[in-house]
Amino acid sequence: MLAAARKQRRLGHIMNAQLFPAFAAIVTTLLIAAPQAQHPPAGFVSLFNGKDLAGWKIPAGDNGHWRVVDGVIDYDAESEAQGEKSLFSERSFRDFTLRLDWRIKSTPYVNPGVPIVRFDGTHKKDAAGKEIRISVPDSDSGIYLRGSSKAQVNIWCWPIGSGEVYGYRMDAALPAAVRAGVTPKRNADRDIGAWNTFEITLRGDRLTIVLNGEEVISSAQLPGIPATGPIALQHHGSKKDGMWTAPPALVQFRNISIKELAQ
């Protein structure tokens, strides 16, 4: 009986040694997959709880295309809403610093008409004076400031980099200094699929953007921007016969928080 008991204990030790690593791996996987609590930096208030879209206006008729997956806001660029398809915050804001993480999931669409944007906001031309266009695998989204689609901070794959304010840069009626100011000073984007971090500060009509620790927009002027309004995560893209006809907003967002600034 003593020998049998010793044999049973040895078998128990062997089984524990074999099963524990597998059990630990399962637990680790579950912890990684579980939604992570959204902990805003000191002085900031979270705009996304990591669980659902409370605090956001889901477009009427969206049918589940804006959703929360594994603790992040996930969008497939196929909202079925008949009107506005972007996701707006319920609250409006005046002056603020907004922090959020974003990533482009994939780039199934190749954009054949991407210009080479100079750092002054103009487009490079060839010897005949025609704008040079290149093909780029491209997905596209952005952040509306104070509810304005013109004051949209771009998220995309263009060589100039994310953080550009397209609606202002392309407004030929604006002074050259304004258009240059909303053009990124450098491309600070990480590779497709990787997480990026925006810190966007808007005070009055002056905008500063830090992307992944690098200041890409410095006190740019946004003439005519509304005095107050919501934050929005932008829809972009469309399909025809099952194929993308424009860069889709295949994006995810997390850790969205805001600090309102004193007047």
Account of the 3D structure:
With 263 residues, the protein is of the alpha+beta class. It has three helices and 17 strands. The strands form four sheets. Strands 1, 3, 4, 6, 11, 12, 13 and 17 form an eight-stranded antiparallel β-sheet that branches. Strands 2-5-14-9-10 form a five-stranded antiparallel β-sheet. Strands 7-8 form a two-stranded antiparallel ribbon. The model is unreliable at 19-35 (pLDDT under 50). The longest helix is centred in the first third of the chain and has 32 residues, at 2-33. The chain has two domains: 1-34; 38-260, Jelly Rolls (Sandwich).
Instruction: Characterize the overall form.
Output: globular
CATH hierarchy, class of the largest domain? Mainly Beta
Query: What share of residues are in beta strands?
Result: 35-45%
CATH 4th-level superfamily of the largest domain: Exo-inulinase, domain 1
The average pLDDT score comes to 90
Main β-sheet, in a few words? 8 strands, antiparallel
Count the E strands.
17
Report helical residue fraction. 10-25%
Number of helices: 3
Give me the secondary-structure topology:
Layout: H1 2-33, E1 45-46, E2 56-57, E3 66-69, E4 72-75, E5 87-93, E6 96-104, E7 110-115, E8 133-137, E9 141-145, E10 148-155, H2 166-169, H3 176-181, E11 196-203, E12 206-211, E13 214-221, E14 229-233, E15 239-240, E16 243-244, E17 251-260
Short account of what is shown:
The chain is α+β, with helices and mostly antiparallel strands. It is 16% helix and 35% strand. The strands form four sheets. Strands 1, 3, 4, 6, 11, 12, 13 and 17 form an eight-stranded antiparallel sheet that branches. A five-stranded antiparallel sheet has the order 2-5-14-9-10.
